[in-house]
Amino acid sequence: MSALQAVAYGSADVFIGLATEANYLIDQLQLPLSITRFGDVDAPPFVFLARATDTGLIDRINAALRAIPISTVVEIERRWFGSANHFKLGRDLVLTAEERAYLSTHPAVRYAATIDLPPYLFAEGSRGAVTGLGVDVMDLIGERTGLTFQPVSFGTRRESFEALMDGRVDLLPDIPLGHARPSGMTPTTSYAQTQWVVVVQAGNSAIAGTRHLGGKRVGIMPETRGFQRFDPEPITGAPLLVEGRDVPTLFRMLLDGSVDAISLPCTTANYFIAQSDLARSVEVVTPVNESVTQIAMAVRPDNELLLGIINKVLESTPPEDLDALRHDRMRYRPTNVIAGWSTMQRKRIVTVLMALSVLLSLGGGTLGAIRYRERRHARDMRERIALQDALINALPFSVYLRQADRCIVSCNSSFADAYGLPRDALVGVDVLPTATGRQQALNAMLEKLYRAALTKRRAQFADRTLPGNERDSDVFVWAIPLDCPGSGQDVVLGGWIDITLRKRTERALKQAMLDAKTANQAKSTLLATISHEIRTPMHAILGLLELELNDPGSPGRDAIRTVRKTAQSLLHLINDLLDTSKAEAGELQLDPRPTDVATGLEQPVLIFRTLCAEKGLTLKTDIDPTMPKTLLMDGLRMRQIIGNLLGNALKFTDSGGICLSLRWQPQDDSHGTLDIVVRDTGIGIRAEDKSRLFLPFGQAAGTGVGFGGTGLGLWICRTLVARMGGRIVLESRFGEGTEVRVSIPLMQATPTLSTPATLPIPHDWGHWRRVLVVDDHAPNRMLLVRQLRTLGFESTIEASDGEQALALLEHETVDVILTDCSMSRMSGYAFAGAVRADERWRDLPIFGCSADARAEARALALSAGMTAFLTKPVALADLTHTFNAYLRVATSVDRRALDNADDPQHRAMAAATSRTLCAIASDDSEARDALITALVQSNEADVQALRQAVNGGDADTAAGIAHRIKGGSQIMGAAELEHACVRLEQLLRESDMSGARIQAECVIALCAALHARLRALQRDALE
Question: Where are residues bearing 4-aspartylphosphate located in the sequence (predicted)?
Fold first, then answer.
């Protein structure tokens, strides 16, 4: 009391204590306080305490408490707990963390809707919706907690019990709690109570109390035998309990005499008896006993959280609120669930009579409607037949309908005109006229398709030619079987269309296509002739001019340079024409492969830098420093694009300069866009000329004569850029200059190992090698022979085709074959295949030359067995690089190492090796000699193993040995041997055993040269 007064008058802020005690004192002392919330702890209920041995006293007290009506309990609580106005609780419950978590994870609760216990749970007859006091209480719980309750229907209470046990439902909403609590479930706090009563037929004076039930048949609800403790007990023995399916069934059993009495909860009995039809038929005579049955919900024993939540809601709900719900349900009168038999019979008779009258009315109306529809259907049928006949007759081609007995059912005027008869004369006939040859052919054609359509049961179509008086005509004829179940026999729809004009057009089109194909073949032949007959001598001319320019003593070098420039322009024009033809035919192919960006673009930049210097122009290059080293692209075509753009800029620029910019725009780790910008300070382009610059042979007005060119460069650039998936944009101002932007999506690639161009190039191959030169063009053979002699090859044999070369191989010994790929009698590809097929020449190096720079030509050469592929015009640098990679054999290197020790190159290599060894051995001569001995012995063993592995075809073992030799060469600083091992590893990875054998000899020879230098260092140290 003091604590409450302290809070009321400001001495304290909060009071914590028992709610009932606080509410009583607040009410008695009229303190200005309110109870606002409950604590988070579960308080135990108020109970009586007794010794555990006083079981009889405990049982009697429990029975007395259960017998107290709930209204009395409410009055007692109101008297002693005080006014309910002192509870000003929020709607939020005080829940534990586990309970709140349960609400968030289990928002929906399934409950068993066994609608057999009104007014707690039942279904209204008018709507069929589940309702009752249990549903009202669940709605109250849902408002307080946010839970939603979902009904799951079951036919019997036993099925609902089983569903709760196996987890199909979470809650039973209306469980009567008697002396024996139900097993396998845990009940909640009760929300209603009732008593069990005995109901008999009205006027049955034989049963006035429970003692009169001896030997009687008593109907009970399923699973309620535990509540049937009759007190006082029947005098003449126990009654016979008969279970009914549900409450309505029990009342029907009572009314038809199947049972003498029924036992029900009082509230349920009152609910049914309150209906007018049952009030005069049945009556309640006595309670089953004095016990009070509590109505509660039930959950599984393991669902303690849901039990606690429901109990908190029920216990925190004011009693008057629950009493209001119960009061509303007791006054509620639902739709009748069961009716008396006399009333039902009267209703049935009235219903039957009304139904008969409705049926008679409907029958009369239906007959009238049927007659009306028949008349209207007949009229519609006549109109439809007339419309169908008019439609068939209006068709601009011949149509007929024919039955399976061959009789013509219908036809149109076009069909009749073919026979020279009116339509009516043909309808019904089974034999068509055959007065003319055309009619005979037409009848045979129609008869054939008509029979095929009936036999195969599918549509038949054909193109036929009919003879005529002046000229034949083409027709498209058809016969389609129709499914007509009501006709009694099959019907075929047939006819024909004159397609003479279409056929003439098709024949003309085929002839035009044949002519176009012939013209295309002629063009291909012409282009092949241009490629071979013009480019071949042009390559010879360019090669000879190159040789003359390389000769310091050659007179007229300026004139030769001018001629060479003119020849290159002519060759560039021919290449543009060939590329244009390939692009128009859709045969312009790309060969994307990993390409070093710097190396791939070095050649056009160097060429145009020299050309710009000759015109007094500057060529600036701006390359993105973040540019990937290697990109997956067609390097040849990319150089062609940049070369065309730089060539156009150079052609139209007389002062100032040209700028080439390369930028990389990354999209992700491996993809990006290469932006190429070529900007010049030339004459610029007028706006009206821009649209035709990207067309074949398109040039700006007035530039063709003054600047030359064919107008193919930009068109080829646009075609190549489009094939690469990019775009090209040209911006220009007349008199100021032009800027061309190219954007191409590309992918980064892993750099590939290749023999670098800076390898030392030997010049003594030819002193001991003999070369067979095969070419059907004499100037080209002369060019190749002169180039070989320039490189030191003094012994050469010439052949004009593959067959002559094979004949020479039979009685001549050669070491190298240099052959053209395209020859008149036997091509270079066939010649290489024949050489590889003969075991005597299988290991001969074969180098192919072709003016076709496509990737397909290179692949064809390698698949034919050629060692390497060279593109015409073949420059001396190309021959040197190729021979350097493939023609290093042991005898040559040994001789260079042993006989030419005074050669400057040899001395330089030896000096480099010596410096490397001294650095490793820290200038200790003994350590250096020991290291030399170990390296030589290890390399000699590796050389023997390498020779055996290569000859035995063991690529994996050979690659491992080559890798080991490469590591030793890196220690010694022998770059030439290192690069040779890299090339051998590459050939072994590509399974090119023929090339690997040749390269292995090169590696072995270089190892011998290295050993000679190392031993020479040892000898020099001893001296």
Answer: 820
